[in-house]
């Protein structure tokens, strides 16, 4: 005998044998099980208790139920059986209890008005529906009545009654005019809950003849209209004010009953002039928060979802300036029945116990009655296992015949509740509904829930095992749920495996196996980070994940918890999100969500889009004074970057319209500023906001403000007195701006007097100029100068005086006592006596030293003279002359410099530089190698820098490992240019070192290598050097120099530069020293080397060249075109004719003075020097900026080589930028000055040539 169980609804939930709570409408069994198990009927769908239907449409009364076997249906109407077979207008839907009453084909809805109830029945019991009251909707017409016009005195109250017809359901009331426009309502005029229109006091504008009340019946979608009401308001003077009087409700108190859960509506409408204001209170309490609302201009108090606690006295108070009136509404909240515990279905096995509980509440308290299969339980068939105890039915030792459907009815005067609950008695062996070998996959460290859904009657016992032959699972590691589920709260890798669920009762036993797999959790190892980005920039969020290898993750990006915008600017990559061209609307939170079939992780980051602030707005000027004004403004949006400051600019529409100038700047926390003003300015202001990103657009300009005129506050700045000619003084100043004039008629009073002379000030008043020239002044004398501003209202304050000078003239005296001290072969020091300041006749700028090389002392060849200039600042009387050439003759002179220019030159001073060491020999060639000898040839040094005394030759052998042997030195006379070295070792490489000497020492050396031959028959080792290339688009010309025996076999190797591919080899036919590589790729860099076949296989060093770019088409050789040849012939003929004409004219008018011929053929190194170069502070060719005169002879050598002088001005700390140092030392550039022969007359002193004639033509 199984143990009996009492299931109490107050302590334990009713348990189905699936261990699931069964609701009254659903038994959650699988379909196969439902096909096998019997179940009493359950009503699943029914029409509402109060069912109002449209009389024009078919009536559908719903009744749906389920059960096993499927239930049959029957109906009662007004308490008696309703035989639908006898009424042709009534049908029942197949497999359903729903009735369809055909009204549209001749039926009358009023004929089917009544109370209907449905019964669903099978062999296990019968369930019944609620009593369904069916009533057709009604929308009757308004009764005809005669409406008299309403004549009302201004200020009186008025009520227009609507009195709509009684409909089902009640209509919705509203007032309109003839034009179907709603009448405006206010605190003075409003509609009451009963539909009447109330006027607290009438006004003349209330006069009209079309006050119309409308009633809308929603069920029938019809609107009924009352006849128009006329209102005429007549005025009486004066209008009498009245204290409030309640129009509705009347009296001082009233009562109101409302049902629990409904909406409570209380109304107070008052008359009075001025219009009263309504206020609501609850006596002894507060109005319920969150459920209280005021409507109709606070004339209606609305409380939703009322309960018994809302009962009480509610007071409305109407008040105006003359007094108040109040009304108390006593509210009682009643309650239709509502469930405390509704009965629930019971599924029991034979011999078990159970209870059905039906508990309800209401006001008044409802009565409880029971029915069995739709029949009052008192007259229902007896069941010994059943006992009724008020709201409870107790079942003991039930049998299969105890199955039935019980109905509980709870009712009071305000309504009823009806609930069906069945008792189903079944005897079934255990069944496991979970599929066999079901696979469960969970994430490590997460709960694992292994289902074992079961069914059986009596209730089976459930046990779990791990593995096929494992022991029963027990302990705190597991949680066993009543529905058979096994829970592993924290699943680990070692929990994976096979689990067995066993269900058993007295009728049998069954088991099932499930599989559990534990997966690694999904993690975001690189989360998106907070980003701040400027507008129109680019931003990227990373989301790098790690997941179980057997799970396939999907990554989704959200913006503000919604999908990303459908915008091509959003680029979703494998592990990132990139937003291009960011805009303000992209601001927000971006979330990366990673989903697998088992878990989901997410990470978010905020994107803040910053930009320059929006411009300020709403500028306002206040506190206007003559010299100040207050400006205020409202800041624009800072665009996520705080405003740091505001820049205020102004425009002077009077003097500089359209020009905005800086006024001031204030901190970003400040939105007002007091601005200083100048007189006689028509001000407008604008404000610019500044944040970390940049400046906003300017605000709109403020209103204009014109300040009053005044005399000037300031005088012109930057006043100067500088003469432009020896006999004048130019006074200049910076004129005042328009806003600085302070008034109309701006002028300047210019004053001057000679300094240190007891003279009066001389003044002149000028306007619209910024300089004044004083003529007839002595040369370079100091003057006191001042400039004062004035306008129509007066003078500015007395200006300060400045010292100026009248104009300068060229210095009159040359420096004297010029001395030169030669320090070494490349450096000399020059001294001179200063020029008296009076003879300078201007500001002393410094001294210029002109120096040039006359000739080299080591050879008598003449060369072009290059004159160099050094400038020394101030009154310095010495300087260094660097960069001289050794063993040379030089000349120099010195000139004083002022602001006007250079003075006369001192007499030329001649000095000579001593010898220096020579440069390296110009070349060294080694030829004619034999078994034991080599022939050396050399050239003398390009710059001997003195008298050569000898040459020194050093040489030593080099073995195969590049080690050097003993060094041999030979001294050679200076007049030799070749030498044969004998007694050398055969087949040996030698390295040679060769240099020249003067009396000062040895010069730099030149090196070379050569090899003696092995024997007379053996060929010489080849030597290839100077490999050159000339590349075209697809080919390259390779040429080289060769030293060695005749009939050498050459080859050319080449390949792509930087490539590791093998060299390509081309054999050169014969002994040519050039080769053409063909078939090259355009625009490609190649490497090339040349080799000669021999015993040692010597090659040249590598050279690199690049082919030209590919051309779109083959270029045509212009030289082969006929038109080009013809054009060149025509040009040649034209030139010949011009030459003949020039020659004829020359012979007719030319003159050839002897002086010109002598000048033209004179030695250029002894020509007189031109001293008209006024350049100050430069080291440059004096001829660079002057055109060549006809017949001038240009020296062939125009270069200065580095070895000519290794000295630098930097070595003397003087710099080379043409400026003065603080200590007065020279600066700057010194350069050659190419002297030209003086040319007399306008004609050339040379015979004409074709080239000169062509130049003249061009």
Automatic annotation (TrEMBL):
Q: Which residues cross the membrane?
A: 1123-1144
- What UniProt keywords are attached to this protein's entry? Cell adhesion, Cell membrane, Disulfide bond, Glycoprotein, Immunoglobulin domain, Membrane, Repeat, Signal, Transmembrane, Transmembrane helix
Identify the stretch(es) annotated as Disordered: 696-716, 1153-1258
A matching Pfam family? fn3
Cellular component per GO, a single term: axon
Where does the Fibronectin type-III domain start and stop, copy by copy?
Answer: 615-710, 715-809, 814-916, 920-1016, 1018-1110
Tell me how this protein sits in the membrane: Single-pass type I membrane protein
Keyword Membrane among record annotations: yes
Q: Which domain of life is it from?
A: Eukaryota
Q: Where is the signal peptide?
A: 1-24
Q: Where in the cell is it found?
A: Cell membrane
Query: Major place of localization?
Result: membrane
Residue spans of biased composition, Polar residues class: 696-712, 1242-1258
Locate the Ig-like domain: which residues? 41-129, 136-230, 244-332, 337-424, 430-517, 521-608
Q: Name one GO biological process term.
A: cell adhesion
Composition bias type Basic and acidic residues, residue spans: 1153-1173, 1195-1204
Q: Describe the family membership recorded for this protein in Swiss-Prot or TrEMBL.
A: Belongs to the immunoglobulin superfamily. L1/neurofascin/NgCAM family.
Write down what this protein is called: Neuronal cell adhesion molecule
Native source organism of the sequence: Junco hyemalis (Dark-eyed junco)
Q: What is the lineage of its organism?
A: Eukaryota, Metazoa, Chordata, Craniata, Vertebrata
């Amino acid at each position: 005998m199984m143990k009996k169980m009492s299931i109490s609804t107050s302590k334990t939930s009713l348990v189905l044998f699936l261990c699931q709570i069964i609701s009254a409408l659903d038994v959650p069994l699988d379909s196969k099980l439902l096909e096998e198990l019997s179940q009493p009927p359950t009503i699943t769908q029914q029409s509402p208790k109060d069912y109002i239907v449209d009389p024009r449409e078919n009536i559908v009364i719903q009744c749906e139920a389920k059960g096993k076997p499927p239930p049959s249906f029957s109906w009662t109407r007004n308490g008696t059986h309703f035989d639908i077979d006898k009424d042709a207008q009534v049908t029942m839907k197949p497999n359903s209890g729903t009735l369809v009453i055909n009204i549209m084909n001749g039926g009358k809805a009023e004929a089917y008005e009544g109370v209907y109830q449905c019964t669903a029945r099978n062999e296990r019991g019968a369930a019944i529906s609620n009593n369904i009251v069916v009533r057709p909707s009604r929308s009757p017409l308004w009764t005809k009545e005669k409406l008299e016009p309403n004549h009302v005195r201004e200020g009186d109250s008025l009520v227009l009654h609507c009195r709509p017809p009684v409909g089902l359901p009640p209509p919705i009331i509203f007032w309109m005019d003839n034009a179907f426009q709603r009448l405006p309502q206010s605190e003075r005029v409003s509609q009451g809950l009963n539909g009447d229109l109330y006027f607290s006091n009438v006004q003349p504008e209330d006069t009209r003849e079309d006050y119309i009340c409308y009633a809308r019946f929603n069920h029938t979608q019809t609107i009924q209209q009352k006849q128009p009401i006329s209102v005429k308001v007549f005025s009486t003077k004066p209008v009498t004010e009245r204290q409030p009087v309640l129009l509705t409700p009347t009296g001082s108190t009233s009562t109101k009953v409302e049902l629990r859960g409904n909406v409570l509506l209380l109304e107070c409408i008052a008359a009075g002039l001025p219009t009263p204001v309504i206020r609501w209170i609850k006596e002894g309490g507060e109005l319920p928060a969150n459920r209280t609302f005021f409507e109709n201009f606070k004339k209606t108090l609305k409380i939703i979802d009322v309960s018994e606690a809302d009962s009480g006295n509610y007071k409305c108070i109407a008040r105006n300036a003359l007094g108040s009136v109040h009304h108390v509404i006593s509210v009682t909240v009643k309650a239709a029945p509502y469930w405390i515990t509704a009965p629930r279905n019971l599924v029991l096995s034979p011999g078990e116990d159970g209870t059905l509980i039906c508990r309800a509440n209401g006001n008044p308290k409802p009565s409880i009655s029971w029915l069995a299969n739709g029949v009052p339980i008192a007259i229902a068939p007896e069941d010994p296992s059943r006992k009724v105890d008020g709201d409870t039915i107790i079942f003991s030792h039930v049998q299969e015949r105890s199955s039935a459907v019980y109905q509980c009815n709870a009712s009071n005067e305000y309504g009823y509740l009806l609930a069906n609950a069945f008792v189903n008695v079944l005897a079934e062996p255990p069944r496991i509904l979970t599929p066999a070998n079901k696979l469960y996959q969970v994430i490590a460290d997460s709960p694992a829930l292994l289902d074992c859904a079961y069914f059986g009657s009596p209730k089976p016992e459930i046990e779990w095992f791990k593995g096929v032959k494992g022991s029963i699972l027990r302990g705190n590691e597991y949680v066993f749920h009543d529905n058979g589920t096994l829970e592993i709260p924290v699943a680990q890798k070692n929990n994976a495996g096979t689990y067995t669920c066993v269900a058993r009762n007295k009728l049998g036993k069954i088991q099932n196996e499930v599989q559990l797999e534990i997966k690694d959790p999904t993690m975001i190892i690189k989360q998106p980070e907070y980003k701040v980005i400027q507008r129109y920039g680019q931003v990227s969020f990373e989301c790098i994940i790690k997941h179980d290898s057997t799970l396939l993750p999907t990554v989704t990006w959200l913006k503000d918890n919604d999908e990303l915008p459908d915008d091509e600017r959003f680029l979703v990559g494998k592990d990132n999100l990139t937003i291009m061209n960011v805009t303000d609307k992209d601001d927000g939170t971006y979330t990366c969500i990673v989903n697998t079939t088992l878990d989901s992780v997410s990470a978010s980051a905020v994107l803040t889009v910053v930009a320059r602030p929006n411009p300020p707005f709403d500028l306002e000027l206040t506190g206007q004074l003559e010299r100040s004004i207050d400006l205020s403004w409202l800041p624009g949006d800072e665009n996520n970057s705080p405003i740091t400051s505001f820049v205020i600019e102004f425009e002077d529409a009077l003097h500089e319209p359209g020009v905005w100038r800086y006024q001031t700047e204030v901190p970003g926390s400040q939105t007002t500023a007091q601005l200083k003003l100048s007189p006689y300015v028509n001000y407008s202001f604008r404000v610019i906001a500044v944040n970390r990103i940049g400046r906003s657009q300017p605000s709109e300009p403020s209103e204009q403000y014109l300040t009053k005129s005044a005399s000037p506050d300031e005088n012109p700045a930057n006043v100067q007195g500088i003469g432009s000619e020896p006999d004048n003084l130019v006074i200049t100043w910076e004129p005042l701006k328009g806003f600085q004039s302070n008034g109309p008629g701006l002028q300047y009073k210019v004053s001057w007097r000679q300094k240190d002379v007891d003279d009066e000030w001389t003044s002149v008043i000028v306007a619209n100029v910024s300089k004044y020239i004083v003529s007839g002044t002595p040369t370079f004398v100091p003057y006191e100068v001042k400039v004062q501003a004035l306008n129509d209202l007066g003078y500015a304050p007395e200006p300060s005086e400045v010292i100026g000078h009248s104009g300068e003239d060229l210095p009159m005296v040359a420096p004297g006592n010029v001395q030169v001290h030669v320090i070494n072969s490349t450096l000399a020091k020059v001294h001179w006596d200063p020029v008296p300041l009076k003879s300078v006749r201007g500001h002393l700028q410094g001294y210029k030293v002109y120096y040039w090389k006359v000739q080299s002392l080591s050879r008598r060849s003449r060369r072009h003279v290059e004159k160099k200039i050094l400038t020394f600042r101030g009154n310095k009387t010495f300087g260094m002359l660097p960069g001289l050439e050794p063993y040379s003759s030089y000349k120099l002179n010195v000139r004083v410099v002022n602001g006007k220019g250079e003075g006369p030159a001192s007499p030329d001073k001649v000095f000579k530089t001593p010898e220096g060491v020579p440069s390296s020999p110009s070349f060294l060639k080694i030829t004619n190698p034999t078994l034991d000898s080599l022939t050396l040839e050399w050239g003398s040094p390009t710059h001997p820098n003195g008298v050569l005394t000898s040459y020194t030759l050093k040489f030593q052998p080099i073995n195969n490992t590049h080690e050097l042997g003993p060094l041999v030195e030979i001294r050679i006379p200076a007049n030799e240019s070749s030498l044969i070295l004998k007694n050398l070792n055969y087949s040996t490489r030698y390295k040679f070192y060769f240099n020249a000497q003067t009396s000062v020492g040895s010069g730099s050396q030149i090196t070379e290598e050569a090899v003696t031959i092995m024997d007379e028959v053996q060929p010489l080792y080849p030597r290839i050097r100077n490999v050159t290339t000339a590349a075209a688009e697809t080919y390259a010309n390779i040429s080289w120099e060769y030293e060695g025996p005749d009939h050498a076999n050459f080859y050319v190797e080449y390949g792509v530069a930087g490539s590791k591919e093998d060299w390509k080899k081309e054999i050169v036919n014969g002994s040519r020293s050039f080769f053409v590589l063909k078939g090259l790729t355009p625009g490609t860099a190649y490497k090339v080397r040349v080799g000669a076949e021999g015993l040692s296989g010597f090659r040249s060093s590598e050279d690199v060249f690049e082919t030209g770019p590919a051309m779109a088409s083959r270029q045509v050789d212009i030289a082969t075109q006929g038109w080009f040849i013809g054009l060149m012939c025509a040009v040649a003929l034209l030139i010949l004719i011009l030459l003949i004409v020039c020659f004829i004219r020359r012979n007719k008018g030319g003159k050839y003075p002897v002086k010109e011929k002598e000048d033209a053929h004179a030695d250029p190194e002894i020509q007189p020097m031109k001293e008209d170069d006024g350049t100050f502070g430069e080291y440059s060719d004096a001829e660079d900026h002057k055109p060549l005169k006809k017949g001038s002879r240009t020296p062939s050598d125009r270069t200065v080589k580095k070895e000519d002088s290794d000295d630098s001005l930097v070595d003397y700390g003087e710099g080379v930028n043409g400026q003065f140092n603080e200590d007065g030392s020279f600066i700057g550039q010194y350069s050659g000055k190419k002297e030209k022969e003086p040319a007399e007359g306008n004609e050339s002193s040379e015979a004409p040539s074709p080239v000169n004639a062509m130049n003249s033509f061009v």
